[in-house]
């Protein structure tokens, strides 16, 4: 007698790539992937800001508005290819249809509790999927790059600042 096991959906590399392709198409159709910067920013868009305002305080204790301005300046210096990848990451995190399944944050970012954001970051950091681990590293590096390039952070790490010329 042969038993037939029910097919259980698994998230492997191929299905994640298909999901990502579908999400990218959906983002382009929905217009969420707009490249129009938010007011007072060069690169950051209105859709990016709630997500970043929720994530930044979980990574570093800082003035979020100052850090957003520094992050925007850093993003403006990226190559077009790296900026495109960063915007795709931000789009996937901002669009509700992809945010919920990939992060566990089912509501709006501005309603997310710090503990939820921390669980999302840990989930991506320890994911078996390389793509999610890379997304975690990218988020962490972007926020830390902005933090350490800000003079407000220098005293906390013992850096006296660049020499005065």
Put simply, the count of helices is 8
Number of strands: 0
Structural class based on helices, strands and sheet pairing: mainly alpha
Helix content: 55-70%
Question: How far apart, in Å, are the first and last alpha carbons?
Answer: 84 Å
Q: Give the H and E element order.
A: HHHHHHHH
Main sheet, how many strands, which sense, barrel?
A: none
Ranges with pLDDT <50 over ≥5 residues? none
What is the C-alpha radius of gyration, as a whole number of Å?
18 Å
**Mean pLDDT across all residues, rounded?**
85
Shape annotation: globular
Q: How large is the share of residues in beta strands?
A: under 5%
Describe this protein's structure.
This is Twin-arginine translocation pathway signal protein. InterPro entries: TAT_signal. With 165 residues, the chain is mostly helical. It has a domain at 45-153. It is built from eight helices and no strands. It has helices at 13-30, 48-59, 64-76, 80-94, 96-103, 114-125, 130-148, 151-154. Helix 2 packs across helix 3 (64-76), helix 2 crosses helix 6 (114-125) and helix 3 (64-76) packs across helix 7. The model has no long low-confidence stretch (mean pLDDT 85).
């Amino acid at each position: 007698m042969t038993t037939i096991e029910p097919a259980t959906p698994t998230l492997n590399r191929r299905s994640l790539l298909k999901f990502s392709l579908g999400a990218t198409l959906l983002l382009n159709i929905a217009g969420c992937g707009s490249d129009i910067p938010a007011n007072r920013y060069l690169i950051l868009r209105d859709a990016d800001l709630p997500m970043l305002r929720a994530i930044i305080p979980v990574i570093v204790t800082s003035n979020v508005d100052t850090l957003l301005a520094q992050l925007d300046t850093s993003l403006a210096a990226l190559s077009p290819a790296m900026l495109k990848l960063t915007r795709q990451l931000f789009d996937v995190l901002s669009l509700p249809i992809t945010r919920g399944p990939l992060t566990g944050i089912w509501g709006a970012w501005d309603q997310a509790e710090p503990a939820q954001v921390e669980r999302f970051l840990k989930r991506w950091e320890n994911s078996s999927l390389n793509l999610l681990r890379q997304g975690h590293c990218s988020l962490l590096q972007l926020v830390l790059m902005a933090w350490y390039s800000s003079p407000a952070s220098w005293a906390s790490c013992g850096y006296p600042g660049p020499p005065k010329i």
